[in-house]
Specification:
- The protein is mostly helical.
- The chain has one domain.
- Helix content is 72%, strand content 0%.
- The chain is built from nine helices and no strands.
- The protein is globular, with a radius of gyration of 19 Å.
C-alpha cells in the first residue's frame, strides 16, 4: 500500500511539473512583454523575457517558503522572482501599469484555456500506451486548476500582488499613496491571511467556479 502511495505521488508530481513551470514562467514573462509593448525595456535588457524557468526562480519564494509551509502543513504559497518594470519608462505610467500588472493573470487564464483544449483532445483520443491517457488528463487537469489558482490569487487586491497594482492604478492618487505605504508589508499580510485560512476561504470557491467553467469547455 505504501509503495502504491509513493508511486501515485511520484506520478502526480511528474504530471504537475510542466503545468506549474510554464504557469509561473509565462506569468512573469507576460509582465515583461506587456511592459516592453508600452515602452519599458527593463526586463528585456536584463534577459528576463525568456521561457527559461531558472531565470525566474526566487531562492526564498520559489524554494524556501514552499518547503517551510509544507513542513508546517500550511497552505502552499510561493512566488517567482518578479520581472522588473520601471513605470517611468511607460508611455502612460499609471494607465499602462494597470495593463502590465493584469498581463500576468491574463496569461494564466489563457493557459488554462489551452489546457482545457488539451483535456478535450486527450479525452477523445485513442492512446496506444497504457496509462498515457490518464497521465495526460492529469497533466491537463493540473494545468487548468493551477493556472486558475495562480490568476485568481494574484488578482487579490493586496499590494504587491498584481491585483494590488491594478487597484493602485485605478484609484485616485491620494488613496494610491496609502496603498504604497501598505505594499512593503503586503507579503506578510498575505502569509498571515493564508495561515489564518481567510484567503483560502475567498480564493478556493472562486477557483472551483472558474475551473468548472474551463472543464465545461473541455467537455462540450
Amino acid at each position: 500500500m505504501a509503495d502504491m502511495d509513493v508511486a501515485a505521488t511520484i506520478q502526480l508530481l511528474s504530471a504537475a511539473v510542466i503545468p506549474v513551470i510554464f504557469g509561473i514562467t509565462l506569468h512573469e514573462v507576460a509582465h515583461g512583454w506587456a511592459a516592453r509593448h508600452f515602452g519599458d525595456r527593463t526586463a528585456e535588457l536584463l534577459g528576463r523575457l525568456t521561457l527559461n524557468p531558472i531565470r525566474h526562480v526566487d531562492p526564498v519564494g520559489s524554494i524556501a517558503v514552499p518547503l517551510v509551509l509544507a513542513f508546517l502543513s500550511l497552505p502552499p504559497f510561493g512566488w517567482a522572482r518578479p520581472v522588473p518594470v520601471n513605470p517611468r519608462n511607460l508611455r502612460k505610467p499609471k494607465q499602462h501599469m494597470v495593463l502590465v500588472a493584469a498581463a500576468g493573470p491574463a496569461s494564466n487564464f489563457g493557459m488554462a484555456l489551452v489546457w482545457a483544449i488539451g483535456f478535450a483532445v486527450v479525452i477523445r483520443a485513442q492512446m496506444p500506451v497504457a496509462g498515457l491517457r490518464q497521465f495526460l488528463l492529469s497533466m491537463a487537469q493540473i494545468g487548468i486548476y493551477f493556472n486558475v489558482l495562480l490568476a485568481i490569487f494574484n488578482l487579490m487586491p493586496i499590494p504587491p500582488l498584481d491585483g494590488g497594482r491594478v487597484l493602485r492604478g485605478l484609484v485616485p492618487e491620494p488613496l494610491g499613496r496609502k496603498l504604497d505605504v501598505v505594499e512593503p508589508y503586503g507579503l506578510i499580510i498575505v502569509m498571515a491571511l493564508l495561515a489564518l485560512g481567510v484567503l483560502g476561504q475567498v480564493v478556493a470557491p472562486l477557483v472551483e467556479l472558474v475551473s468548472a467553467f474551463y472543464f465545461s469547455i473541455a467537455r462540450a
